[in-house]
Amino acid sequence: MGSLVRSLSAPGTVRDTLGRQIRDLRISVTDRCNFRCTYCMPKEAFGPDYEFLARSQLLSFEEITRLARAFRNHGVEKIRLTGGEPLLRKDLERLVAMLAEIPGIDLTLTTNGSLLARKAAVLRAAGLKRITVSLDSLDDRVFRAMNDVDFPVSKVLEGIDAAASAGLGPIKINMVVKRGVNEDSIVPMARHFRGSGHIVRFIEFMDVGATNGWRMDAVMPSAEVIRRIDAELPLAPLDPNYRGEVAERWRYRDGSGEIGVISSVTQAFCNECTRVRLSTDGLLYTCLFATQGYDLRALLRASASDDALAAAIGAIWSVRADRYSEIRTAETAALRKVEMSYIGG
Ligand SMILES: C[S@@+](CC[C@H](N)C(=O)[O-])C[C@H]1O[C@@H](n2cnc3c(N)ncnc32)[C@H](O)[C@@H]1O
Ligand code: SF4
Asked: Which of 70, 145, 318, 331 is at 20 to 30 A from 233, Cα to Cα?
């Protein structure tokens, strides 16, 4: 880290070895979750003996905000709070209020929706503008099996309604598609949210972490998702909202809204990746599929100056060469990558 800190680069201009800038910061505010989604925190790996981080290891809200300001100075425009389940972090609305004060930041949050009916209004009042809710099926049997804690669809739908009433819409709904598990939920999901103003995004099952038993044959390519929906609800492609947008956008030809597909397995978008991730305990990861991070908490707790923090971030980014999804093989998929719940989905 010492030599990294010394190779200072000017805030706002730093580019990695592939010419990409930092635009998007994801912050994991807790590594804990009340769900055990089979593709993310399977029970076998995240059982009673699993050691989650201790409270003293977590970044405090003040530490997170200080880092967020340093990232803002490097050109970050969007911050997503995630986890684990971010709404499990006590007083999260206090952090939202602190981050909402940073000028030029588009602040959003991804949640499983389980606590949203209770929390939507306070989050909105604290300054949150938008939200993404994950929901993998409207079929209660399928959803309960996928979250593996028997959580019902109806409660997530209540959370989505509460968020919309609180002014957090249009809401993005994330659905991870696993072949043979919830593929029959694709068209009903599209149909349910068509015309609501909310945007469903169908996500390819990814080989994140090292415990979810990922196999290529469980991935349903986005092209097939689009084919299935288009056969019943005709679609036309839309241009991206901005360069580097992860979701590929499609609109219903009858004007009843849009959907997105995220194809990080079959159509890697590494060449435009402007994302960086901050783990719950303050390690910086420059790729979702990383095996190691850079300890920014150590710098914070060693009373590093703002300049030193900014220099460290710039130096880490400037040597970044990650393009995992473009070079994925069966061997890389088996690497001991860090878990998504810890670095933030
Ligand atoms: C890790 S979660 C954290 C936030 C929150 N707990 C939630 O589920 O929305 C963030 C997103 O990552 C997605 N995700 C988790 N594991 C995945 C995997 N193996 N492949 C694709 N997406 C995954 C989830 O479905 C969710 O939409
Ligand atoms: S996807 Fe979200 S809700 Fe599901 S286990 Fe992972 S962190 Fe929890």
From this structure: 145
Give me the phi and psi of 204, to 5 degrees please: -70, 140
- 172 alpha carbon – ligand 1 mean position (Å): 13
User: Phi/psi at 155 (nearest 5 deg)?
Assistant: -70, -35
Structure tokens at 153: 């669809």
- What single string gives the DSSP state of each residue in 205-225? ----SSSS---GGGB--HHHH
CA distance 114 to 87: 9
The strand pairing partners of 82, in sequence order, are: 28
- In eight-state DSSP terms, residue 195 is T
Q: Which atom of ligand 1 is nearest to the CA of 136?
A: 25
The arrangement of strands across the sheet holding 294-295 comes to: 235-237, 248-252, 258-262, 199-204, 172-177, 132-134, 106-111, 78-82, 24-28, 275-278, 283-285, 294-295
pLDDT along the chain (345 residues), means of 10: 44 81 95 96 94 96 97 94 97 98 97 98 97 98 98 98 96 97 98 98 90 90 98 96 86 98 86 90 89 93 94 90 72 73 79
> Which two structure tokens, joined as six digits, stand for 214?
């990922």
Q: Cα(253) to centroid of ligand 2, in Å? A: 33
| pTM score above 0.90 | yes
**Atom number of ligand 1 nearest to Cα 35:** 6
Ligand 2 atom having least distance to the Cα of 82: 7
Closest CA to ligand 2's atom 6: 40
Partnered with residue 284 across adjacent β-strands are 278, 294
Does 42 sit behind a cis peptide bond, omega within 30 degrees of 0 on the bond before it? no
